Amino acid sequence: MIKTEELQINIGPQHPSTHGVFRMLVTVDGETIVDLVPVFGYLHRNHEQIAEVNTYLQNMPYTDRLDYFNSMANNQAYAMVVEKLVGIEVPERAEYLRVLMVELTRILNHAGALGFLINDMGAWQTPLAFGMREREKILDLFEMASGARMMCNYFRFGGVVRDLPPAFMPLLKDLLVALPAFFDEFERLLCENEILLQRSEGVGVLPKDLAISYSVTGPVLRASGIPYDIRKAEPYSIYDRFDFDVPVGSVGDVYDRFLVRVEEMRQSLRIIEQVLEQLPDAEGDHINPKAKQNVRPPVGDAYARIESPKGELGFYLVSDGSEKPYRYKVRAPSFINLTPLGDMCRGYKVADVVVILGSIDIVMGEVDR
Amino acid sequence: MYDVVDYVLNTTFNLGAAGWVVSLISYLMIATVLFLVAPLQMLFLTYYERRLIARMQDRVGPNRVGPEGMFQPVADAVKMFTKEDIIPAAADKWVHLLAPLVVVAPTMFMFAVLPWGPGMTPIDMHIGLLFFFAVSSISAVGLMMAGWASYNKFSLLGAMRAVAQMVSYEIPAMLSLLAIVMITGSLSIVDIVQWQGGLFISSSDVAGVPNWGLGWFVFNPVGFLAFAAFFIAALAEGERTPFDIPEADSEIVAGYMTEYSGMKFGLFFLAQYVLNFLLCAITAVIFFGAWQGPGVNELYALGITPDNPDGNGWFNVLAGVLGAFYFLFKTYAFFFVMVWIRGAFPRLRVDQLMDFGWKYLIPLTLVNVFSAAIWVGFNNWGANEGFGFAEPLGDLGRWAVAFVLTLAINIAAYIVMTRIYGETRRVTFDEQLADTAGLPS
Question: What is the interface pTM, i.e. ipTM, of the complex?
Answer without folding.
Answer: 0.78
